[in-house]
From TrEMBL:
Transmembrane parts of this sequence: 228-247
SUPFAM superfamilies, per the entry: P-loop containing nucleoside triphosphate hydrolases
Keyword annotations of the record: Membrane, Transmembrane, Transmembrane helix
The keyword Iron-sulfur appears for this protein: no
Domain of life (superkingdom): Eukaryota
Protein name, per record: NAD dependent epimerase/dehydratase
Length: 267
């Protein structure tokens, strides 16, 4: 582990992730933490963890960004004391809260809600997300098809205050960069002691565009869509067979056979 990004979500974390990847770092963000470390994170949040746990989780990772790793920056740094810490924050609390609220509402995307309902992978992701959001903010996102999502912004802002104060007061000053992605490459590359790229600094998730980009580009979404197609295909087959049996036998006889038929299908 070389870099720990301690800024909460909606402080430029996606742009920072893209910048670090352009500099050659292997970065674990929200999705990577879910894909490869969901079980470990669930254990840590529900039961607790040790320095050895974090060292084992991230021994082959160069950098971490966003939730839930940003919230556990201190514990990760104890496992990797030579790592540098980049702390991003917004100009003020209200600006952050407005941006966070926009992200929450963007999660009400119909396709994402459909994936949460019918894809086993996304059902696990939603459950995992709710576990760490509740641990961090004392609340979690509740999406709805026909009305705005719910999220307790009062509790979220209180977490933002406490988290920022903890980082600024306790992060080792010789290893800390307080950074805004608006500052671009120069302070970041100077802090990391690497050359400045010739390409423009990346800008990601501006005005909560992350969900749309994620649904269009990420391979895990394709996996979720395939799972939905399989689920619907199996359901259609079961329904068709049920209708066929209904017309071939009396309703009472057909209903008695349902449990044994389902058992044969799934076993």
């Amino acid at each position: 582990m070389k870099v720990i990004c301690a800024g909460l979500s909606k402080t430029g974390t996606k742009s920072l992730k893209a910048a670090l990847e352009e500099l050659g770092y292997n970065v674990y963000d929200f999705v990577e933490n879910f894909q490869f470390l969901a079980h470990e994170w669930t254990k840590i949040i529900k039961e607790g963890g040790t320095t050895q746990d974090f060292r084992r989780m991230f021994e082959n990772v160069d950098a971490v960004t966003d939730s839930p790793s940003c919230y556990f920056w201190d514990e990760i740094h104890k496992a990797f004391p030579k790592a540098k810490i980049i702390f991003t924050m917004r100009e003020d609390e209200d600006t952050w809260a407005k941006s966070m609220w926009g992200q929450v509402q963007a999660s009400n995307n119909p396709l994402l809600l459909f994936l949460f309902k019918f894809s086993p992978t996304f059902q696990r992701m939603q459950k995992w997300r709710d576990i760490f959001l509740t641990a961090m903010y004392g609340t979690c996102i509740k999406e709805h098809f026909f009305r705005p999502a719910d999220f307790n912004m009062l509790l979220a802002k209180m977490t933002y205050r406490r988290h920022n104060a903890h980082v600024l007061q306790n992060a080792p000053k010789d290893k800390l960069l307080v950074y805004s992605v608006e500052d671009g490459w120069e302070p970041l590359c100077k802090f990391l002691e690497v050359d400045i790229p010739s390409t423009p600094f990346p800008r990601k998730n501006v005005r909560a565009t992350l969900v749309k980009e994620f649904l269009e580009e990420h391979p895990i979404v394709s996996k979720g869509k395939r799972e939905i197609m399989i689920s619907f295909t199996v359901s259609a087959i079961l329904l068709s067979y049920g209708v066929f049996r209904f017309y071939k036998s009396s309703p009472l006889t057909w209903m008695k056979e349902i449990p044994s038929y389902i058992s044969r299908v799934w076993n």
